[in-house]
Amino acid sequence: MSLPFYIVDVFADRKYAGNQLAVFLDAENLSSEEMQQIAREINFAESTFVTKLDRENNKAEIKIFTPAQEMQFAGHPIIGTSWVLMNKIFENSPSEIKLTVPIGGIPIDKTEDLIWLKAAQPKFWDVFSKEDFTLFSNLKVSDFENQFPIQEVTTGSAFVMVGLSSKRALENLVLDKDKADKWMREHCKTDHRGLYFYYLEDSKLFSRMLCIEHNQLVEDAATGSASTCLQAFLLKYHKPEFEIINYQGDYIGRPSQIYFKGKLADDQFDIKIGGKAQFVAKGEWEA
């Protein structure tokens, strides 16, 4: 079986930046096990598989896989897949489409060269102490900012939000893989476990996402799902309406820009993240 596929760089203002994504079409006859094998083979942070395509109504259903597991929701795969569908698959380059992932339908719209997704309502889970993080990192208590809690948040995929007091602390961050893995297994509520470190200074936001996959400490170039969690977190604790660019990936040579546009009113979160995508390649995959 031959599958058409596209490769794009997501949350990137130029090629060979941002987060890589492989988008596989005509995947309705693949099993989840086969999709997982392909995602492991290509070994990007995530790959997507289009399992249903409604060209007439600009709708699609997709499944999302990291090299290690299936994801219920993930931002950069949704943005990147939407770019491929809008620019390469659907006729007349529609400005709005509907993408369905395991957690449900995701409205997508395009404004100039930015593609935006609207996230689900967040859930705010456990709060943790700074001292926990000093046990498996090089951080000192003084390296943490004091305004907001350290808390696990989910909009479909869960991440622990960890605010730092300086860009230098973020840049110099080092984790002990085994101790961090043990802590996350003991404290995170889902099988998807990630730590999202961020530094907020006035109108500037910088971040790093680290997790454990296949017993390796992995840093992601641009994490849309974590960005929706961080946006919800900042709407709750920082201010109820704001727009900002989240800069991620600088420390692994894949600079990324994730656009935030959020609002909190009457206990309802309006969480939107946006980004650019760059076309890299297309081909046929022998499955």
Automatic annotation (TrEMBL):
The active site is at E46. Gene3D superfamilies: Diaminopimelate Epimerase, Chain A, domain 1 (3.10.310.10). SUPFAM superfamilies: Diaminopimelate epimerase-like. Signal peptide: none annotated. Pfam families: PhzC-PhzF. InterPro entries: Phenazine_PhzF-like. One of its GO terms (molecular function) is isomerase activity. GO terms for cellular component: cytoplasm. Belongs to the PhzF family. This is Phenazine biosynthesis protein PhzF.
